[in-house]
Design goal:
Layout (H helix, E strand, L loop, with lengths): L2 H16 L3 H10 L5 H12 L3 H12 L8 H8 L8 H14 L3 E4 L4 E4 L3 E9 L2 E6 L11 E2 L9 E5 L7 H13 L1
């Protein structure tokens, strides 16, 4: 089930379980006067009897703080705001290459860009001010050199390449990205 479908199901279940529309919950949350996510979640749980999952969903939507409430361009700009701006040229080089492959959906999230064809095959994440992580789905490929196992870094990919500059997005890296794209 994809994230949008899961969210829709959760909203339907909230409405069925409480007898109130999602819009009513959002309006009440906005009118509550709680300005921080954690405060709003605690209030929804304690005073309105919602479970943590429902309270978190309502709080995110009421505060427009989830990835689904923000436009894609805004999410990309936010990813590279502040000190991570130095990694934007490396991201642009990798993203430009992927765009040229064709048939790719760019799905921005709060902290990374998901790259999909028939399924996710890669992600581009500005992890620090001096590192862009390229996550790849390369089942059955042994890690070697700069292509390392993703390990606990991100469960959605099998491999990671650490990039320190646009110059490091070289033929080797682009070849690995293309290989993941071909397998998707």
């Amino acid at each position: 089930m994809d994230v949008d479908a899961a969210t829709a199901k959760m909203i339907a279940n909230l409405e069925a379980n409480t007898g109130r529309s999602f819009a009513d919950w959002i309006a009440e949350a906005k009118a509550s006067g709680h300005g921080k996510h954690g405060q709003l979640v605690a209030w929804l749980k304690a005073d309105r009897g919602l479970t943590h999952g429902y309270a978190n969903l309502v709080a995110h939507k009421a505060m427009a703080s989830d990835a689904g409430s923000q436009a894609g361009d805004d999410l990309v700009e936010a990813m590279f705001a502040g000190p991570k701006a130095a990694m934007r040229p490396a991201y642009d080089k990798a993203a430009g290459f992927v765009e040229g492959l064709g048939g790719v959906e760019f799905a921005p999230k709060k902290g990374y860009m998901s790259l999909r064809r028939s399924k996710q095959f890669a992600l581009l994440q500005p992890s620090t001010k001096d590192r862009l992580d390229v996550g790849l789905v390369l089942k059955g490929v042994e890690p070697a050199g700069r292509l390392e196992a993703a390990g606990s870094w991100n469960a959605m990919v099998s491999h990671r390449i650490r990039i320190g500059s646009a110059e490091e997005v070289d033929a080797e890296v682009l070849g690995w990205i293309k290989r993941a794209w071909e397998a998707a």
